[in-house]
C-alpha cells in the first residue's frame, strides 16, 4: 500500500480498489493529531484500514512524531495493537 502525505489538505491518502481513503491530521510541537478518518463503508474494520493506519504510524515513527489519536477509530486501533503505544505522548492513556 502506498500512502501520500497531502500536506496542503493535511491528510494522509491512499487509494484501494478505486476508492480514496484519508486520515486528516493537525500538527503541533512534534505531535500529530489524527482527527478524522474517511474510509468507505466496505473497508470499515478491515485489514485495509488497519494497514493504512500502520503505514501512517510508520511515517510518524520515522519522523519521531508522537501520535495523539483523536478519532475513535484510531484510538480503537491503538487499543487493539499495543505495540504502537510507544508512539503516544506522555500522559495519553488509551
From TrEMBL:
<feature type="domain" description="N-acetyltransferase">
    <location>
        <begin position="4"/>
        <end position="89"/>
    </location>
</feature>
<dbReference type="InterPro" id="IPR016181">
    <property type="entry name" value="Acyl_CoA_acyltransferase"/>
</dbReference>
<dbReference type="InterPro" id="IPR031165">
    <property type="entry name" value="GNAT_YJDJ"/>
</dbReference>
<protein>
    <recommendedName>
        <fullName>N-acetyltransferase domain-containing protein</fullName>
    </recommendedName>
</protein>
<dbReference type="Pfam" id="PF14542">
    <property type="entry name" value="Acetyltransf_CG"/>
</dbReference>
Amino acid at each position: 500500500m502506498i500512502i501520500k502525505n497531502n500536506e496542503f489538505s493535511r491528510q494522509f491518502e491512499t487509494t484501494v480498489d478505486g476508492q480514496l481513503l484519508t486520515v486528516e491530521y493537525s500538527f503541533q510541537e512534534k505531535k500529530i493529531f489524527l482527527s478524522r478518518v474517511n474510509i468507505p463503508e466496505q473497508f470499515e474494520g478491515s485489514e485495509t484500514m488497519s494497514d493504512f493506519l500502520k503505514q501512517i504510524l510508520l511515517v510518524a515513527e520515522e519522523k519521531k512524531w508522537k501520535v495523539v489519536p483523536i478519532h475513535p477509530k484510531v484510538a480503537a486501533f491503538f487499543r487493539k495493537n499495543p505495540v504502537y503505544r510507544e508512539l503516544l505522548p506522555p500522559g495519553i492513556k488509551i
